[in-house]
Design goal:
Elements lengths: L1 E2 L4 H7 L34 H4 L1 E5 L2 E18 H4 L1 E20 L3 E13 L11 E13 L6 E8 L21 E10 L2 E12 L8 E2 L3 E13 L2 E17 L2 E16 L7 E15 L2 E15 L8 E9 L35 E13 L2 E11 L7 E2 L5 E3 L8 E13 L4 E12 L1 H6 L5 E3 L6 E3 L3
Antiparallel strand pairs: 1-3, 1-22, 2-3, 3-4, 3-23, 3-24, 4-5, 5-6, 6-7, 7-8, 8-9, 9-10, 9-11, 11-12, 12-13, 13-14, 14-15, 15-16, 16-17, 17-18, 18-21, 19-20, 21-22, 22-23, 22-24
Length: 463
């Protein structure tokens, strides 16, 4: 489980701005923030506003400085359903600092440093836990101006599209994902269109020793049209070439193409109404000598009642992703590519992941007081194919099929409490227990996996 509380030292840094609400909310991709309005000094109301617009000699030449701190304790019992038969308690720290250089209306440079530290974990830090210091982003961008514009970005950068189901910064784990390559961004009429080609950044635990993964190439194009009537739409294509890929069937070279579409309507906050997020993808290509035929469909349907006490929202997620059947000539395990770290919520980094699965995920969220949300949910998961195993969120095999014909993997009740103090800081606590069902009991030790609190965890965007 995870629990989020602010360390006293961090709180003292943020305390002067706790009641400051001026300016836009912080963005997941910090380069997307626009602080140019702060050239008008009368609009500067927050303690950090002087760092958000530092003039470089003219109105369209300025520097923005920002940063983030996250402190977390995690405690996991019976990790991997009993393969590690002990309770593992450890401390995670994430520090990020960025500078955004606006060099006129056509050029900008963005540099973001990251540091991720792990302490006291039995077995040592996982690759997603520790990166002492390196560049999360370091890119240069040139763009045109006008209603229909185009921009070219080159260097190390983050990619995050749609709901993050297939392309995400991996925000849940301690170390975020970045890529080395280029991206072309444009607005054409009502459409936003991006095209990119990159290699994922391989995180090594030391200082400034990251490098692009030469065995993996990733490319794609993503087009979205926001709010066409009562909903938004997105369509995209991605290609992935991995020289070495491992699945339940074995290891081989993977060349995988994905065609996908998404339809969504945001959560209603002013009046009663439905929200939804539907996304489907078809994958083809080759794995070794076999053709890939894989697919997924994900849905999230909710109804909000903001006019009632506690402003409840009821929602149900239902997802399915194909698994492999070695009796067929084709290879059918779906690849979630670079998914959001906390794909199923509370058990963000323990699994199962979004390959070879069927799930049903009801959730109730309420807001008992201003700025505080409480949610309770239940995730039940099955294998889509009885001849394929259970995978982790990043995509590696956790539990092979091992001849089991059981479909039910298990279920996880969970609860989350979040307090958004202001736009600078929030506290969050999570608790979850994954009860192993017949498949895990037959193919692994099958112990109940728990995550629960052992101390503080906070995310604080100080700047």
């Amino acid at each position: 489980m995870r629990i989020a509380l602010v360390w006293l030292a961090v709180w003292l840094v943020a305390a002067p701005s706790v009641h400051a609400q001026s300016g836009p909310a912080y963005s997941l991709l910090r380069e997307n923030e626009d602080w140019s309005f702060l050239r008008d000094k009368s609009l500067r109301q927050d303690i950090w506003d002087t760092l958000k617009y530092i003039s470089l000699g003219s109105e369209d030449r300025y520097l923005t400085i920002g940063g983030e701190v996250r402190e977390a304790f995690e405690q996991v019992g019976n990790d991997n359903w009993g393969k590690q038969r002990y309770t593992n308690t450890f401390f995670l720290e994430r520090y990020m600092l960025h500078s955004d250089w606006h060099l006129g209306s056509h050029f900008l440079a963005f540099v973001q440093l990251k540091g991720g530290l792990e302490s006291s974990r039995a077995g040592g830090p996982r690759p997603i836990d520790e990166k002492k210091l390196d560049f999360e982003a370091a890119f240069f961008e040139a763009r045109t101006s006008g209603k229909n514009w185009i921009a070219l970005r080159s260097g190390r950068q983050e990619l995050n599209y749609g709901s993050g189901r297939l392309i995400s910064v991996r925000g849940g784990p301690n170390v975020r994902q970045s890529f080395d390559g280029f991206k072309v961004m444009s607005t054409i009429g009502l459409w936003n269109v991006d095209a990119f080609g990159a290699r994922p950044d391989s995180d090594k635990p030391g200082f400034f020793n990251n490098s692009p993964d030469r065995r993996t190439t990733f490319w794609g194009i993503y087009a979205s049209r926001p709010r066409t009537g009562r909903f938004s739409i997105g369509v995209y294509y991605t290609g992935l070439d991995r020289k070495v890929a491992a699945y339940n069937r074995g290891t081989g070279q993977e060349l995988r193409h994905s065609l996908a579409a998404r339809l969504w309507r945001p959560v209603q906050t002013k009046e009663r109404g439905w929200d939804f997020d539907y996304e489907g993808a078809r994958q083809f290509g080759t794995f070794g000598s076999r053709n890939i035929r894989a697919w997924t469909f994900a849905s999230d349907t909710g109804y909000s009642l903001p006019d009632l006490p506690f402003k409840p929202r009821l929602s149900v997620k239902s997802d399915i992703s194909s698994g492999d059947d070695p009796r067929n000539n084709s290879f059918e395990t779906f690849n979630a590519l670079f998914p959001i770290g906390n794909y199923f919520g509370v058990l963000a980094d323990t699994g199962p992941g979004p390959q070879n699965f069927i799930d049903l995920h009801p959730r109730l969220q309420i807001q008992p007081v201003r700025g505080v949300s409480v949610s309770a949910d239940l995730v039940a998961q099955w294998r889509q194919s009885l001849y394929d195993g259970v995978y982790a969120v990043p995509g590696f095999l956790l539990v092979p099929a091992n001849g089991s014909m059981a479909r039910f993997v298990g279920y996880r009740p969970g609860v989350e409490v979040r307090w958004q103090i202001d736009r600078h800081a929030y506290l969050q606590a999570d608790y979850g227990v994954f009860y192993a069902a017949q498949f895990l009991k037959e193919a692994s030790p099958g112990e109940t996996l728990t995550t629960w609190p052992s101390g503080p965890d906070t995310n604080l965007e100080v700047l």
